Amino acid sequence: MAVQKNDLVELEYSAKSEGQLFDTTSADAAKAAGVFNEKATYGPVLVAVGQGQVISGLDEALQAAEEGKSVTVQLPAEKAFGPRNPDLVRLVPLAAFREQKIDPFPGLVLEMDGRPAKVQSVDGGRVRVDFNSELAGKPVEYAFTVTKVYRLADDKAKALAKKLLDADAKLLDGAVTVKLALKRDMAADVVLKKFRFMEQAFAVVDGVKTVRFEEEYTA
Predict the structure, then answer these.
(1) Which CATH architecture best describes the domain 152-219?
(2) For the CA atoms of 117, 122, 17, 61, what is the dihedral angle to 10 degrees?
(3) Backbone dihedral angles phi then psi of residue 28, each to the nearest 5 degrees
(4) CATH code for 86-130?
(5) What is the pLDDT of residues 51-81, one digit of tens each?
(6) H and E: helices and strands count for the chain
């Protein structure tokens, strides 16, 4: 049975652009390509199909996939990371960098205005900065396998709770209850994770009307 919209799936993939690996769930593939990141978490990712959690072309391909079968798709830029937008290339005064004690040079990647940007050139007192994604305007290739599909509402709730909160969940009469046992110093970190769980539970777990968190904190 093919994957359908609103199914929750565990997904393994490797993604390439111009033959170069730029993203993968496999630590071995990342090491082989020389792009392994010690701070990254590798392994299957949980995706709510048809909810825009992955690029549009991959989201479409997932809805034709079958559990356990490997698929490779070629995606044009329009269904990947979009076309390049010339309005996202801007001139920034060199003084703005110097105030932050940054010496810009072509190829430098940094964060500006809360998003990644790449310095294209430095000319006199002006710096040309590109806020486009490195993959904008490029076709990409995804090789992926759906390793598990969750279709039943209770299974979806449990999978979301485990992945997002490392907790257990129970669905009863339209209410999802998540039990959290946390250390006191984890209180701030869990706020965003709870919000993500709530948003996804309402979106993909059939019949959910209420989300409850039962929390216990220890020193």
Answers:
(1) 2-Layer Sandwich (3.30)
(2) 30
(3) -65, -40
(4) 2.40.10.330
(5) 999 999 999 999 989 999 999 999 999 999 9
(6) 5, 12
